[in-house]
């Protein structure tokens, strides 16, 4: 059963971080339906991704995104 | 003082305790190799014949030593040749630091000669990777690489360094670098308390020991916990050797080709303590029929593994040794002999139907199990055994009597054919124990060129080639599930003895049963590398087997 989730990620603001996050979703053929980014050059980045998936998959994705070295926090709403 | 980037990199490797690297030079790493030239007394470089050999050798080294394996490759095809090994290390949690060259920073993105975006290619198969474009980045990145590769759940890291960064000069004070171990997860003692309660009240408790027990160097604590509580212990493929096979509480290997009782009784246990294993599909079979009746305590250093395949009643994020030690302190002593007897009853069935017929075969040809059994007896289960992938791998896992911890090196998660010989090479550089590679004729040919490395390095690696002139495991599946339609599994093999001798390595062919004993003796006694090319029965399938899609209760004996 699919639901709409927002995955909010706080991470280092550096090249390649979005690539790593997107890779985790692409691997599971999850389409990113919305994306919001905020962050300034020397501050952390905040990505909010909107996806439509099952709760189990959302929880698994959160765990895998947490493993990315540059990622500091991940929240699911 | 000012040093070239390449020299700083070499100095940092030495500072991180690196004594051996495996590699193959090329255009974009000539500066690195030039710096290495002055440090040959401090770092030993093993020149391989294919970069895949370098990365698998680094894996073998890492698996045996517990330290990060290091390999070098040039950009482009050199780096892409590492990909299989990097993916292999990722699946099997092996710490690696792979250093690859890259074209100069100003050329990146222009499709320059031997340029490949290896960072993009390896992102899904590494814990971390980074492209160094300036010498000033080298110290922090290399330190971070070693920390990430070896901490928490170990894994491969790729550090790419552009040619200009290798050649730039940079003021480097090596006293500033202080390798520090990464702090692990904080153990939640309340969860450990709950686990102890469950185990204290269990009637049919069961311990699953996986690779994590060996990675945490927790064999002693595992044995002590089992002995205090009388709980039977089964292992996964990578958990083999975490408890001696001769131990009275060892009940077998889990999984598709594991032991009969160990698998069947998974669905009878009331509490399962799973340590450092990830409930891989080869172990669980059909998940909807897996251990539904049991309360599961899942201990792992990687929280992402808990509740991934199997729901955990208690998920403990921690280091296996720390958790086992804590459990040991407060758990009640107990015995469960009636429960253990149930395993032994099923063991007898497996013994009669599968093991005895193989070990006392009267057929014309030898079978794989007999060879491994003899090897096990002659080495007293104390050698380091490295396998390749296929039927021979499963037979070795089943029939070698591992007694010492961390003596079974195999490609589990990825199942990479060609792993065996180079990994054995790497393992031999890290231990004085005898190292024996058991390979199949299909697997052996994938990285056979590394025989040249074995000879050049004078590594006394012993190679047992179980030769059935086919791709055995695939043939087995075609036999059992595809109506014996043997599509492209028959191999016309070369004369392996001639080939080994062509590489200046001693070799012997074994055809008849009576030749085996003498040949094994000569191989084991030899002070130099040795190959035994042993003809084994082709039409033999590995049993027990849990067919794909079957549950642990449907494990077949034939």
* Main sheet record of chain B: 6 strands, parallel
Q: Could you give the count of β-strands of chain B?
A: 20
Radius of gyration of chain A: 12 Å
Percentage of residues assigned to helices of chain A:
25-40%
Question: How much helical structure, as a percent, in the residues of chain B?
Answer: 25-40%
- The run of helices and strands of chain A is EHEEHE
Number of helices of chain A: 2
**Percent of residues in beta strands of chain B:** 15-25%
Q: pLDDT average of chain B, as an integer?
A: 97
Kindly state the mean pLDDT of chain A as a whole number?
A: 94
Count of helical regions of chain B: 23
- Counting helices, strands and paired strands, the structural category of chain B is alpha/beta
Strand order of the largest sheet of chain A: 2-3-1-4
Structural class of chain A: alpha+beta
Strand order of the largest sheet of chain B: 3-2-4-5-7-6
What is the general shape of chain B?
Answer: globular
Give an overview in words.
- The complex is a heterodimer of chains A (77) and B (558).
- Chain A contains two helices and four strands; from the N terminus they run E-H-E-E-H-E.
- With 77 residues, chain A is of the alpha+beta class.
- In chain A, strands 2-3-1-4 form a four-stranded antiparallel β-sheet, with helices on one face.
- In chain A, a hairpin with a 6-residue loop joins strand 2 and strand 3.
- The model of chain A has no long low-confidence stretch (mean pLDDT 94).
- With 558 residues, chain B is an alpha/beta fold.
- In chain B, the strands form four sheets. A six-stranded parallel β-sheet of chain B has the order 3-2-4-5-7-6. Chain B has a six-stranded parallel β-sheet with strand order 11-10-9-12-13-14, sandwiched between helices. In chain B, strands 16-15-17-18-20-19 form a six-stranded parallel β-sheet, with helices on both faces.
- The longest helix of chain B has 23 residues.
- The model of chain B has no long low-confidence stretch (mean pLDDT 97).
- The interface between A and B is medium-sized, with 12 and 12 residues.
């Amino acid at each position: 059963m699919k639901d709409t989730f927002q995955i909010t990620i706080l991470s280092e603001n550096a090249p390649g971080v979005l690539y790593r996050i997107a890779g985790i979703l692409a691997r599971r053929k999850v389409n990113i339906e919305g994306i919001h980014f905020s962050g300034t050059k020397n501050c952390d980045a905040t990505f909010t991704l909107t996806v439509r998936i099952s709760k189990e998959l959302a929880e698994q994705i959160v765990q895998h995104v947490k493993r990315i070295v540059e990622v500091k926090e991940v929240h699911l709403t | 003082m000012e040093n070239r980037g390449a020299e700083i990199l070499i100095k940092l490797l030495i500072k991180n305790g690196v004594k051996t690297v495996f590699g193959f030079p090329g255009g974009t790493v000539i500066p690195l190799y030039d710096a290495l030239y002055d440090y040959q007394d401090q770092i030993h470089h093993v020149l391989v014949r294919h970069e895949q050999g370098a990365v698998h050798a680094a894996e073998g080294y890492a698996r045996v030593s517990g330290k990060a394996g290091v390999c070098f490759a040039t950009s482009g095809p050199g780096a892409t040749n590492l990909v299989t090994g990097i993916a292999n290390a990722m699946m099997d949690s092996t710490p690696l630091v792979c250093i690859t060259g890259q074209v100069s920073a100003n050329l990146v993105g222009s499709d320059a000669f031997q340029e490949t975006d290896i960072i993009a290619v390896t992102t899904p198969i590494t814990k971390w990777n980074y492209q160094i474009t300036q010498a000033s980045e080298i110290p922090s990145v290399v330190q971070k690489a070693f920390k990430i590769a070896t901490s928490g759940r170990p894994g491969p890291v790729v550090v790419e360094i552009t040619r200009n960064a290798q050649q730039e000069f940079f003021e480097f004070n090596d006293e500033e670098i202080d390798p520090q171990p990464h702090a692990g997860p904080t153990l939640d003692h309340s969860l450990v308390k709950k686990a102890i309660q469950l185990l204290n009240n269990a009637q049919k408790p069961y311990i699953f020991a996986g690779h994590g027990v060996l990675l945490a160097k927790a064999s002693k604590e595992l044995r002590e916990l089992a002995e205090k509580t009388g709980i039977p212990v089964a292992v996964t493929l990578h958990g083999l050797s975490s408890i001696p096979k001769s131990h009275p509480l060892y009940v077998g290997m889990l999984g598709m080709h594991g032991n009969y009782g160990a698998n069947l009784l998974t669905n009878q246990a009331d509490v399962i303590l799973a340590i450092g294993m990830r409930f891989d599909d080869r172990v669980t079979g059909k998940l909807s029929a897996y251990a539904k009746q049991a309360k599961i305590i899942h201990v792992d250093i990687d929280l992402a593994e808990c509740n991934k395949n199997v729901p955990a009643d208690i998920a403990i994020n921690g280091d296996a040794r720390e958790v086992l030690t804590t459990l040991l302190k407060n758990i009640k002593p107990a015995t469960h002999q009636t429960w253990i007897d149930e395993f032994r009853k099923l063991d007898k069935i497996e013994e009669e139907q599968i093991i005895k017929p193989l070990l006392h075969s009267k057929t014309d040809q030898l079978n794989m199990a007999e060879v491994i059994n003899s090897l096990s007896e002659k080495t007293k289960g104390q050698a380091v055994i490295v396998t390749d992938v296929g039927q021979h791998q499963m037979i070795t896992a089943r029939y070698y009597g591992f007694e010492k911890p961390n003596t079974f090196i195999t490609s589990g998660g990825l199942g990479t054919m060609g792993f065996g010989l180079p990994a054995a090479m790497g393992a031999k550089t890290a231990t004085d124990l005898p190292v024996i590679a058991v390979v199949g004729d299909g697997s052996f040919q994938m990285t056979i060129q590394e025989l040249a490395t074995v000879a050049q390095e004078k590594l006394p690696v012993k190679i047992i080639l179980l030769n059935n002139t086919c791709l055995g495991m695939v043939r087995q599946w075609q036999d059992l599930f595809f109506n014996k339609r043997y599509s492209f599994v028959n191999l016309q093999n070369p004369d392996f003895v001639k080939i080994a001798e062509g590489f200046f390595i001693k070799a012997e062919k074994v055809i008849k049963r009576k030749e085996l004993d003498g040949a094994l003796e000569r191989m084991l006694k030899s002070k130099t590398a040795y190959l035994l090319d042993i003809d084994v029965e082709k039409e033999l399938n590995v049993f027990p087997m849990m067919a794909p899609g079957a549950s642990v209760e449907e494990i077949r004996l034939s």
